[in-house]
Amino acid sequence: MVDSSKQNITWWEITAMQAINLEDIDRPDVIALDKEEQLILIAEVKGFPFSFTDKKTKKYAVLRLIDYLQLAKTLIPFAMLVDVENILIFKWDGNNLSEPILCLNTANVLSYYEPEFNDKKIFSFYLTGLTEAWISDFAYHWKLEIPPASKEMAEIGLLQRLEGGTTQT
């Protein structure tokens, strides 16, 4: 857990200071902020040909999430891994990343934003955009009044945190 009584700079600020170009900054694929602009979710996204069913890919993605979470200035309560098969959501308590608290079928969720999801190869950049579209739909309902998996997201306490917020990639 980060001690807020000390002067700290965020991981993003450190990385930005070291980066020569903005493109050099390593950061999560998607971040979500609540309506008070507090960071509440980070996500790593892997499209075709990668998948988190590969143990090595999943292990390194989880380690990246933990690095981001540990270096953050504040507690980020949720983390997510997204591939073309599953959306896995984890809780972060400031010290430990939980096992997935929610597992969703990616096609069932994101086909609302890409009707041909099951009929084509979805690469990382496009999958990141679809993931951001879905999360943004919770924030301000740009496409659906009730986005896919709303009930499940409410049960873990994430839906309420996303409402009125925003996303960044």
List the helices and strands and how they pair.
Layout: H1 11-18, E1 30-33, E2 39-46, H2 55-71, E3 78-83, E4 86-91, E5 102-105, H3 106-110, H4 124-140, H5 150-155, H6 158-162, E6 166-168
Parallel strand pairs: 2-3
Antiparallel strand pairs: 1-2, 1-6, 3-4, 4-5
The count of domains is: 1
Structural class comes to alpha+beta
- Total helices: the number is 6
Query: How many strand units?
Result: 6
**Roughly what percent helix?**
25-40%
**Multimer state:** single chain
Unreliable stretches: 1-7, 17-25
Gross morphology is globular
> What is Rg?
16 Å
The top-level CATH class is: Alpha Beta
Question: In percent, how much strand structure appears in the residues?
Answer: 15-25%
The CA-CA distance between the termini, in Å, is 25 Å
Strand order of the largest sheet: 5-4-3-2-1-6
Average of pLDDT: 87
Quick one: biggest sheet? Answer: 6 strands, mixed
| SSE ordering | HEEHEEEHHHHE
Q: Quote the CATH topology.
A: tt1808, chain A
Task: Give an account of the 3D structure.
This protein has 169 residues and is of the alpha+beta class. It has a single domain, classed as tt1808, chain A, CATH 3.90.1570. The chain has helices at residues 11-18, 55-71, 106-110, 124-140, 150-155, 158-162, and strands at 30-33, 39-46, 78-83, 86-91, 102-105, 166-168. Strands 5-4-3-2-1-6 form a six-stranded mixed sheet, with helices on both faces. The longest helix is centred in the middle third of the chain and has 17 residues, at 55-71. The model is unreliable at 1-7 and 17-25 (pLDDT under 50).
